[in-house]
Specification:
12 helices, two-stranded antiparallel sheet, Arc Repressor Mutant, subunit A, 2 strands, mainly alpha, elongated
């Protein structure tokens, strides 16, 4: 086990060195590639550096966007970097390509990754905080505190705390997620979601009308209850209280006018 562990970094380092050497050779030794077309050279440059793009894409896995999509974004960014790199400007290709690929991945997250979109400043800080958190966790061997992350990335602790609370913004919890319920058993998240009561939207109206209804005569209150609570027709209300349908209509008209007048007085009192 320990032998394998020692060999893996060496193998990875060897492959990276070979890739870097071949990349430099293709970019800086035109005599060696003179017999090939420019497109063939560019294709080989992309092919040998695909592991770099895939590695960068994998760092953003499990954040709400499928890995295949991230790999596609990273590889397209690699192709663009290969085509845009200018040897006359000097510098190593990967020093140019890696920030380009990382920038494309971050832009993709900014544009397509948020299920709940936080403020722009928090979106921009999210990348710095996550990178700093990962680096510190590796160095410290534990999860770093918000204060340690803030010092590492040069942000205030309040912003770091705001970023760390964004877990559900990329991938919201399933409504079927189980949660502890009291001392025994569990319940789903859906079971705990509130629902709109049928009469909720009328609660303010009832609160305003309650004192006005209390001022009505007993028979008038009975008429209101029969007509508007129990849903009886005017004819049925008349049969219950011993009057004709026409009389019920006049009674309702008088009651409604009285209530409208009372509502007007109440609004004037609130405005005063």
């Amino acid at each position: 086990m320990s032998t394998i562990s020692r060999q893996q970094p060496a193998s990875y380092s060897t492959a990276a060195a070979a890739r870097s050497h071949r990349t430099a050779e293709l970019f800086h030794s035109p005599a060696r590639v003179a017999t090939r077309s420019r497109n063939q050279v560019l294709d080989e440059l992309v092919e040998i550096n695909i592991p770099v793009a895939d590695s960068l894409a994998s760092r953003y896995a499990a954040r709400g966007i499928p890995v295949d999509d991230l790999v596609q974004v990273a590889r397209l960014a690699l192709i663009k970097a290969v085509r845009n790199f200018r040897t006359e400007m000097g510098g190593d290709f990967l020093s140019y390509a890696v920030p380009c690929i990382r920038g494309e991945l971050r832009r993709h997250f900014r544009d397509a990754g948020w299920m709940v979109r936080p403020p722009r400043r928090v979106q921009e800080a999210e990348y710095r905080v996550n990178d700093g958190k990962a680096s510190l966790a590796q160095a410290l061997g534990r999860d770093p505190s918000p204060a340690e992350i803030a010092e590492e990335v040069g942000l205030d602790e309040a912003t770091v705390l705001e970023v760390l609370s964004l877990d559900g913004c990329f991938t919201p919890d399933s409504l079927d997620k189980t949660l502890p319920s009291g001392d025994t058993g569990t319940s789903s998240l859906a079971d705990r979601l509130g629902s709109v009561e049928d009469g909720f939207e009328h609660s303010e109206t009832r609160a305003v009308l309650a004192p006005l209804l209390a001022q009505l005569a007993d028979r008038d209150r009975l008429v209101v209850r029969l007509r508007f609570v129990e849903g009886l027709t005017q004819r049925e209300v008349g049969e219950r209280i011993g009057v004709t349908q026409m009389q019920v209509s006049r009674i309702l008209t008088r009651i409604l006018d009285q209530l409208r007048e009372g509502l007007g007085d109440a609004q004037e009192l609130r405005a005063a």
